[in-house]
Prior knowledge:
Blueprint: H1 5-19, E1 30-34, E2 40-41, E3 47-52, E4 62-66, E5 79-80, E6 87-91, E7 98-107, E8 113-122
Parallel strand pairs: 2-8
Antiparallel strand pairs: 1-3, 3-6, 4-7, 5-6, 7-8
Amino acid sequence: MTIKTDHLFSLFLLSISFILPVNSFAHAILVKSEPAKDSILNTAPQKIDVWFNDKVGSEFKALAVIDSNGKRLDNKDVQQETFDESHLYATVQPLAAGTYTVRYRVVSVDTHIVTGKFQFTVKAP
Length: 125
């Protein structure tokens, strides 16, 4: 029984594909935030934290907190956690009662820019 060269080569490629690690490149997905999406808080937060399902690039990152009048209330100081590159955070100015929108922009491992937003509400005392 003889095996054709092209079949042997195909078998070789198939066997190599099982041995080599697989890199799956996908867009970063927001998996957690503090405050949480759509949460209603009794006390205004002093900072906003967001976590993604994978590390994100340190360039082009943005995290903004905007009130219902369109005024930006974060301190424009977005940082990336040193030992957890999936975690970004920014401090905010004192927040009054109201609904706030958090907007984010990150670069995924696959080099695509990912943007999104969520809201939270601070209750009146």
